[in-house]
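Input/output pair, single chain:
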Amino acid sequence: MTGQFILAIDSGTTSSRAIVFNHAGVSVGAHQLEHEQIFPQAGWVEHDPREIWTRTLQVVEGALVAAGISKADLAAIGITNQRETTIVWDKATGEPVYNAIVWQDTRTQKIVDELGGGDQNKYQARVGLPLATYFCGPKVKWILDNVEGARARAEAGGLVMGTVDTWLIWNLTGGAAGGLHITDVTNASRTMLMDLDSLDWDLAIAADMGIPPSMLPVIVSSSEVYGEAVVPVVAGVKIAGDLGDQQAATFGQACFEVGMAKNTYGTGCFMLMNTGPQPVWSRNGLLTTLCYKIGGQPAVYALEGSIAVTGSLIQWLRDNLKMFDSSPAVEKLALTVKDNGGAYFVPAFSGLFAPYWRGDARGAIVGLTRYVNRGHIARAALEATAFQTREVLDAMEADSGAKLAELKVDGGMTANNTLMQFQADMVGVPVVRPVIAETTALGAAYAAGIAVGFWTGEADVVANWAEDARWSPALDPVERDRLYRNWKKAVTKTFGWMDDDVHE
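Output:
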């Protein structure tokens, strides 16, 4: 190892970022670019895979320039990505056959219903996931069923699939000229196609979805040397880390002990709790998923509560309703009022994820009176994030039997002090933010660095972690319970909106 830095590529839902980290886990250079959000019709969300690849190269170059280094100074590259977003491409040409179908997309509801035949948990004992539009398998089936000629090309061995990490690694390592077709266990665990015990593809489920085995990438660990990049900007640098974004954040937050949990506040909210070397099967609407796997060491599992819409609700208020010019301005608007004025905002834009898994739900604002103004709506939107997190935490504690002592948080919304205080009030335990807020990219960097000996292991990650801010519960418990009770009532008003008479 000669490099003194690790490069992390963070390919998110709304943007691509590259960050250069030093041995202390501190960013020394970064670059970020947004990519287009494509909404062909209601309920459909797409990205252009070619744009994501272009943005990736641009941010990598920008981060190296910002850090004042070259590829020769890099010890390894780690990759983290928006999970469940699905790409199908021609392995001979590298051309996608369709846009990437994003994790928020709900077009596969009929496929999901048909696969389940009335049993949403048909595959849960094998893959840890309920049948839902969230996951990759039904997205692949939709592409094969709806893109002209795609199924025949797939069955002839001409098409491959993958999540965004797979797409990036394939392109970084040569693309059609011999690129690696791989994914790590954390991303594979989000496809609804990987057996959680064997950590291999469940070919019976793939057959149910009409997905030829030849399309599936090789499953690898989250931390090992996969190969070397060949694209000029980082040619010769080892690619050695690969984690889905929420698992990467868990790794970056040093949640290595059973019972430790973190919540990431981004486009959605995702809480993961480390459950150790054995999967814990949820009885309360959570996902059983992989947490990470370091090389040949045993896999570590997690319980996850996935919330579809949190930060994207603030973006919706900004972009669709023009309530403010920038997302941080939501806090200033919310502080113009003392409470939510009786209004509750349930942002079921993509149905409801954990712990409900209701694809028939749609967004609603309830409790409106003439008293309610823009400030109340802004506050209700922020509170929705905290209420949804409380629901997930309640389910997590019920499934694990463990009572959380504190909640580690990261992501862009943690800069909102009003939200973080209300979050602590709702969950009833301290909320703690680390000094290094970019824990998703940092987790990918740690995974890559451990694989090449840049860091010795988890102990170095723990040593680098430091607390930046802490919010303690301050709300009267009676008032907390009243607000939460009303929220639960509001959620029920979103159920059953989508039916045979309502088409998106």
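Residues 374-400 form the longest helix (27 residues). The mean pLDDT is 93.
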